[in-house]
Design goal:
With 359 residues, the protein is mainly beta. It is built from no helices and 34 strands. Strands 3, 4, 7 and 10 form a four-stranded mixed beta sheet that branches. Strands 6-5-8-9 form a four-stranded antiparallel beta sheet, with no helix packed on it. It has a four-stranded antiparallel beta sheet with strand order 11-34-33-32, with no helix packed on it.
Length: 359
């Protein structure tokens, strides 16, 4: 029985999670050729293209020419792992058929970037794309189509509040913030484009926020709790205990598991059952967890400059190694959008990368 493995690849972006089972070897050597470009137009020369058979028993390597073209041959397998690297950085990885007729066109999508712009968190837009929270309190929507990325500014949190995290449901966007007043959550109602606020705690600072099943959940840092309410108009008077965690921060509602996932700065990821509040350890080896996303088969954790993938089947970190920030900086947030695609935000370089297609 063949085991599934997780790889990083992309259709339109730099990289993406790709689940496959590699095929059995064939008797005859195969050849793969194609072009590597940026946004489908600018050739990328001098890139290293590798084809690797299952288990690494065979590897063939080529370098792209001035027109971005490459040709790799010699593998006796019907499928192979193709990767593109340049200057020591992985740009693309995908499973390809070595029997494909015609050239492969590998187009690498550029990240969305603004100068003097630093995203601190992102959340999936319930319709399409992502919602981005930047350090100055601005919230915007970013979507992508064949012409590139498009940004729409939505609202801003006053500068007297230090913004931390963002979440959304079908009708509203929520932002956690801290100030001298304590933990305050801002709500942006999409239909009316109105902003309201609510103080959740005067004795705690807050961090992660999540929505799910109509409820709103907020991490209270000092008391190590999740405060929650069934709706915005009700008080956040009920809590889940997070005391096994020494420093809880990011939070996400795991729709597939109908539970909350919370991470901390010591490398642990916990699951909190809803509505019982029972807490269990998922994994303790992810390093500092800045953000968590949940897909159908995996839990993704942003940890410094990399995204770590944990398999739902056994809660173990997947191999090969995690995706590293292709823009080079600290990854502030990672999400799975409404279509199941992956996006992440680079705080240092003011960039948002995505959508990365998940198979």
């Amino acid at each position: 029985m063949r085991r599934r493995k997780i790889f990083l690849s992309s259709r339109r972006g730099f990289a993406v999670v790709f689940l496959v089972a590699l095929g059995a070897p064939l008797a005859l050597a195969q050849q793969v050729s194609g072009h590597v470009t940026a946004d489908g137009t600018q050739p990328i020369s001098g890139a290293i293209v590798k084809l690797q058979a299952k288990g690494g028993v065979q590897t063939a390597v080529a370098t792209t020419g001035e027109d971005g073209s490459f040709s790799v041959s010699g593998l006796k397998t019907d499928t192979a792992l193709l990767s593109v690297e340049k200057d020591g950085r992985l740009l693309y990885r995908s499973i390809v058929s070595t029997k494909t007729k015609g050239a492969l066109n590998i187009s690498l999508m550029k990240p969305f970037h603004l100068p003097d712009w630093h995203p601190v968190d992102i959340a999936p837009d319930p319709v399409a794309g992502v919602l981005v929270l930047e350090i100055g309190g601005g919230v915007s929507r970013i979507r992508s189509d064949q012409s590139g990325h498009h940004q729409e500014s939505l609202f801003s949190v006053p500068l007297s509040y230090m913004v931390v995290s963002i979440a959304a449901d079908i009708g509203a966007i929520y932002v956690t913030s801290n100030s001298q007043l304590g933990c305050t959550v801002f709500k942006f109602t999409i239909a009316t484009r109105s902003v309201s606020r609510k103080i959740i705690s005067t004795t705690n600072s807050c961090h992660g926020i999540a929505t799910g099943g109509g409820s709103i959940y907020v991490v209270l840092t000092e008391s190590k709790q999740i405060a929650y309410s069934d709706n915005w108009n009700s008080p956040f008077s009920r809590t889940f205990d997070l005391r096994p965690s020494s420093s809880p921060e990011p939070l996400v509602f795991d729709n597939a598991g109908q539970r909350l996932l919370v991470g901390d700065t010591t490398g642990k990821i916990y699951a909190v059952s809803v509505p019982s509040g029972k807490i269990t350890l998922v994994n303790s080896e992810v390093g500092w967890a800045a953000s968590i996303a949940a897909t159908m088969n995996h839990i993704l954790v942003a940890s410094k400059t990399k995204i770590i993938s944990i398999a739902r089947a056994d809660n173990r970190i997947e191999n090969p190694p995690p995706l590293r920030s292709l823009t080079g900086g600290i990854i502030a947030g990672v999400v799975s959008d409404a279509s199941g695609n992956i996006w992440y935000a680079d705080y240092d370089n003011g960039s948002v990368v995505g959508p990365l297609v998940v198979k």
